Structures
1.
Amino acid sequence: MKVKDNLTHLHLFVRLFCMIDPRLKSLQLVAWHGTVTAAAATLHYTPSTISAQLRSLAHDVGVPPCSGRAGP
């Protein structure tokens, strides 16, 4: 399988899971844009809504939420 085919499958996989759980779309956009504020603007949400979604997702997955600060 070619790399382009793998990326296409990965893209479809991510889109499917974002439809199943909208919190994943928020996570994807925070990663893409680099900030909660930019992700919130893209989704027409408030930054606090995105932060709450990320905390909820982290709790459900069983990982501690990040502090929101870069570095150690």
2.
Amino acid sequence: MWDDNKAYQDELNRLGIVHTVMSLTSPRVQGIDAPKTAVDLAHSSNQDAYDHYVKSNPKQFSMFAAVADVLTAALGWYLYRRQVRKVNQAL
């Protein structure tokens, strides 16, 4: 979908769709243990959606922003580090 914006717009027009809201399949970035990586992925996904659709035709496209699941990522990192410390203490 990212590569052929014109074909996508033509299809929307053919179907009579005057406005569409772009969204990732989930509103947040999940499954990434590193908070900075999660934030970077959310930011780049938002920037790509904006650059490819909203910026060129804001009357036809808007978007929901993706957010990083930083709390879960931070908790995952904390639990991982805690487990590593336990293993190291057992050695």
3.
Amino acid sequence: MQIFADGFTKVSLSGGVLRLTLVQTVNNNQTTEVGQLLIPAVQAEAFLNGMAGALRQLAEQAKQAQAGEGKPSEQGAEPSQG
């Protein structure tokens, strides 16, 4: 399943589950809810650290591509464990 989101509006913790309400910005900078991301609370820190690590890798790859060192095609990153 794919959900396009460019932000979130609510974060809550209930029953050991972290819930982020995902939104999309539409006309006139209004937002509309597009779904929820549910993460077990005990895994939230590792999940977010993995996401941050993957984003750092993608940023580095983009920097290298702009410098002419990498391919300008679609690039990916593996989430870090930790």
4.
Amino acid sequence: MKSNNNLQHELYDEYNLRFDDYSDTELVDAFNGQVGNGGSGTAKLSYLRAIKSQLIKREIDFSETVGYTKKVILKDKKMYLVENS
């Protein structure tokens, strides 16, 4: 049986590799897909961590976001909150 840390690392690597093939717009869509999506667990934490890692790697400014509470749009490598989302 795998330890939780090993599983989390493997899932993170898997998601990160998948996101490598995503365009910036597709990555933002993945981010927006998590807005209002409750729950937690190893897979979800790994998924969210991989999204954040890709945003940093691509130098996309996500400083206006507060967790996954509101949807965003991407403009000139910066994520902006969508009103009424």
